[in-house]
């Protein structure tokens, strides 16, 4: 391996300085991650460093896997004993060995966000905290921030004694943490803070790991929060051989406690540190890089950096201003097909990036129609599906009997006549006496508030569970899953159902069995049930981007961090969407949104599209948005409008539909007042191609678009979807709306069809017409 051929001078310098502290501070696509990979190879190959002594922390499991693969190609099997993983996976591995030092058992369960929510809700109920005062999402976020800051429940309580709401959060935090411990469970934030706790309370354990990890590397260091920072500092404390790489312009997790100062202060923490700047971008064409640089330079708080490329200018940034969200999705779909026809591109070469997951749905619909294969990263993960969570809850409980959240999830799933009231009685008994819930069920005769029938049904459940626990030792994970679904008749219930959704649920469960088989045949050392559950808990969405599968990837810009694609579509580029509404009123958040935009732009190698829509449906209402300020920040010379004369408002000449648009407040959903909207960007948002319109002209035009888009569809709107309305569906026939509930940015409508029974449909998907 001739590193000098593979790396430029500065990169080579960074890769071959292995002793002491190195900070690589450089812009996107400058080869930071590449340097880390070759640095490891160099350490093993040239410096004879034992792989056992290396710890490399990456941002995703996928990045870790790729790094390991590449190193393996260079140095062979020796790479296997190296720890290359994410912060979370690293800490879990440490905790599996050491957590008993702080009073947990080693087979602890990892709670995901929905388990966390269940537990927080239980605590709120016990503490009589009304979710009108403060809702569970806010509490969870506050607890999470406190953990990021290494603030214990007691400290939090002391700090917020005088604040009515935060005091309530503190009470929940105290109880939540107590319950987690009783359940022998950790939430995601705990994984890192408990590892730090193990180290700070046990200097001998810390020293063992300091000696083990003599060489430490961290990718995407700009996004570390306080607790991650502390962990790295502790581990590197003895040998101080540490190399961190990052880009302050790509810090996009401040909302989750990431502290940009960690990278900016590295030189203060380690005054001897060598700072390496990489200034050549190897990823993007010139125009794309110029666009990125022009956007990010609007941020006040940053270290100025140079980023140049030897690549040619390439195509200009393609801007498309659609007249509706529908039109935007159509444009993206047709462009993908056109580009594939005209160039030798595959679906893999494209990605659609948006700010929030909810934006994926409308693209999905269009892609299905056009036959474009796609994959959505995020949204409902496989492991978040109800049926998968149910089966996993059985496994978690088998593995860790103290896990009362999993226990309560499945005690009556499938239904076995154990009602909520019965469960509550046992829970109260357990809480009053300080017993584990599962133990109380085993000795259920002692719970004197129960009837003989209650006791009998509970016995059926505990007999089943005890059998599973005994079988755990004898069966492999996949066999255990099959055993559980057979004995509980979970799968049978789904197969017998006539609901087509249950058919797909049954298939998902089979898929889970396959995942377990794959795990058993895979490279992991630990093939136990704990090992499987751990793996499942730590799967990240981006891990699933599979280069072999020929599909277009749709994901948030956050998920796309570190990745690159030949063609990138940044969609929903509107003020109020990207940047989001909050960022428009807050300079700090605006700067974070701008960094996010910079991350998005710099994912593109060859072609970058930025699209926006003049009106879109949000919460069932039609809202008008101005084109994103970030597009305006890109100089006109770098941009080319796809629809200079087509698409957009300028082609529509139906000025006469003004009065059929009646609902004045349909503009307020996106939080943009008409006045502000016009003042900001001119109605159409075309900077160059349009002359300025008067207010009333603009008003008229906007109205005409609203009405024409309403006329276009005979589609039932949010306002019309009220209980009692008669509707018609092309397949299910006529029916009556029973209820309509807002779910995310869509509406779930429950309808009693005259001949097809009751169905739940999503308003935006279902072709419903008013009768
Ligand atoms: N010296 C080099 N010679 C050839 N290709 C290179 C060189 N350095 C980097 N590259 C390529 O440039 C692309 C970007 O590199 P890499 O992903 O390591 O950048 P990065 O700085 O980590 O980017 P990001 O900030 O987006 O994470 C990759 O395809 C990489 O292989
Ligand atoms: Mg990188």
UniProtKB/TrEMBL annotation:
UniProt GO MF annotations: 3'-5' DNA helicase activity; ATP binding; DNA binding; hydrolase activity
Any Gene Ontology biological process: response to radiation
Gene3D superfamilies: 1.10.10.160, P-loop containing nucleotide triphosphate hydrolases, PCRA, domain 4
Residue ranges occupied by any UvrD-like helicase ATP-binding domain in the UniProt entry: 5-285
Pfam families: PcrA_UvrD_tudor, UvrD-helicase, UvrD_C
Domain UvrD-like helicase C-terminal: 286-562
Keyword DNA-binding: yes
Residues that hold ATP according to the record: 26-33
SUPFAM superfamilies: P-loop containing nucleoside triphosphate hydrolases (SSF52540)
Keywords attached to this entry: ATP-binding, DNA-binding, Helicase, Hydrolase, Isomerase, Nucleotide-binding
PROSITE patterns assigned to the protein according to its UniProt record, in alphabetical order: UVRD_HELICASE_ATP_BIND, UVRD_HELICASE_CTER
CDD domains per the UniProt record, alphabetical: DEXQc_UvrD (cd17932), SF1_C_UvrD (cd18807)
GO cellular component, one term: DNA helicase complex
Catalytic activity: ATP + H2O = ADP + phosphate + H(+); Couples ATP hydrolysis with the unwinding of duplex DNA by translocating in the 3'-5' direction
Family per record: Belongs to the helicase family. UvrD subfamily.
Protein's name according to its UniProt entry: ATP-dependent DNA helicase
Source organism (scientific name): Inconstantimicrobium porci
């Amino acid at each position: 391996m001739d590193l000098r051929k593979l790396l430029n001078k500065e990169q080579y310098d960074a890769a071959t300085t292995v002793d002491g502290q190195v900070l690589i501070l450089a812009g996107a696509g400058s080869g930071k991650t590449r340097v880390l990979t070759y640095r490891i190879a160099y350490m093993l190959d040239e410096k004879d460093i034992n792989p056992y002594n290396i710890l490399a922390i990456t941002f995703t499991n996928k990045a870790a896997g790729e790094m390991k693969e590449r190193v393996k190609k260079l140095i062979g099997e020796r790479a296997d004993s190296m720890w290359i993983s994410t912060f979370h996976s690293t800490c879990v591995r440490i905790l599996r060995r050491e957590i008993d030092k702080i009073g947990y058992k080693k087979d602890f369960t990892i709670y995901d966000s929905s388990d966390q929510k269940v537990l927080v809700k239980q605590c709120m109920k016990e503490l009589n905290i009304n979710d009108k005062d403060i809702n569970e999402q806010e509490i969870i976020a506050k607890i999470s921030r406190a953990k990021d800051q290494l603030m214990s429940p007691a400290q939090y309580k002391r700090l917020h004694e005088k604040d009515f709401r935060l005091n309530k959060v503190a009470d929940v935090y105290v109880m939540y943490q107590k319950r987690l411990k009783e359940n022998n469970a950790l939430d995601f934030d705990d994984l890192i803070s408990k590892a730090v706790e193990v180290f700070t309370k046990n200097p001998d354990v810390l020293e063992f790991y300091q000696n083990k990890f003599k060489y430490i590397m961290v990718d995407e260091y700009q996004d570390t929060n306080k607790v991650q920072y502390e962990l790295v500092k502790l581990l590197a404390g003895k040998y101080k051989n540490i190399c961190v790489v990052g880009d302050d312009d790509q810090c996009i997790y401040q909302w989750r406690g990431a502290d940009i100062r960690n990278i900016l202060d590295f030189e203060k923490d380690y005054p001897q540190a060598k700072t390496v700047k990489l200034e050549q971008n190897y990823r993007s064409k010139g125009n794309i890089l110029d666009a990125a640089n022009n956007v990010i330079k609007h941020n006040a708080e940053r270290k100025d950096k140079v980023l140049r490329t030897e690549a040619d200018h390439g195509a200009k940034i393609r801007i498309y201003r659609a007249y509706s969200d529908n039109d935007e999705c159509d444009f993206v779909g047709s462009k993908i097909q056109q580009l594939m026809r005209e160039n030798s591109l595959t679906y893999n070469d494209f990605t659609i990036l948006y700010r929030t997951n909810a934006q994926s749905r409308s693209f999905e619909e269009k892609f299905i129609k056009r036959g474009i294969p796609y994959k959505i990263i995020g949204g409902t993960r496989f492991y978040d599906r109800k049926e998968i969570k149910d089966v996993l809850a059985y496994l978690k409980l088998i593995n860790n009997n103290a896990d009362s959240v999993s226990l309560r999830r499945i005690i009556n799933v499938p239904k076995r006549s154990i009602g909520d009231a019965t469960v509550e009685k046992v829970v109260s008994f357990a809480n009053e006496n300080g017993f584990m819930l599962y133990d109380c069920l085993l000795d259920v005769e002692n719970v004197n508030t129960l009837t003989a029938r209650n006791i009998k049904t509970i016995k059926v459940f505990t007999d089943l569970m005890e059998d599973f626990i005994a079988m755990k030792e004898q069966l492999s994970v996949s066999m255990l899953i099959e055993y559980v679904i057979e004995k509980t008749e979970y799968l049978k219930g789904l197969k017998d159902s006539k609901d087509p959704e249950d058919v797909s649920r049954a298939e998902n469960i089979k898929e889970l069995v396959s995942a377990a088989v794959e795990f058993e045949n895979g490279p992991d050392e630990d093939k136990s049930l704990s090992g499987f559950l751990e793996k499942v808990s730590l799967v990240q969405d981006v891990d699933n981007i599979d280069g072999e599968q020929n599909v277009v990837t749709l994901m948030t810009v956050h998920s796309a961090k570190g990745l690159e694609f030949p063609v990138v579509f940044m969609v929903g580029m509107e003020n109020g969407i990207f940047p989001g509404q909050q960022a428009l009123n807050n300079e700090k958040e605006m700067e974070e949104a701008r960094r996010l935009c910079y991350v998005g732009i710099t994912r593109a190698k060859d072609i970058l599209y930025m699209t926006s829509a003049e009106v879109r449906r949000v919460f069932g209402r039609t809202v008008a948005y101005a084109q994103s300020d970030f597009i305006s920040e890109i100089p006109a010379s770098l941009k080319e409008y796809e629809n200079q004369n087509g698409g957009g408002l300028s082609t529509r000449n139906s000025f006469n539909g003004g009065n059929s648009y009646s609902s004045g407040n349909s503009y307020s959903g996106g939080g943009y007042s008409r006045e502000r909207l016009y003042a900001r960007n001119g109605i159409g948002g075309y900077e160059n191609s349009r002359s300025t319109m008067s207010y009333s002209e603009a008003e008229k035009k906007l109205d005409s678009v609203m009405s024409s888009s309403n006329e276009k569809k005979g589609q039932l709107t949010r306002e019309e979807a009220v209980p009692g309305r008669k509707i018609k569906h092309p397949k299910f026939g006529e029916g009556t709306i029973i209820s309509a509930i807002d779910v995310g940015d869509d509406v779930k409508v429950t309808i009693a069809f005259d001949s097809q029974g009751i169905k739940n449909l999503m308003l935006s998907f279902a072709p419903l017409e008013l009768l």
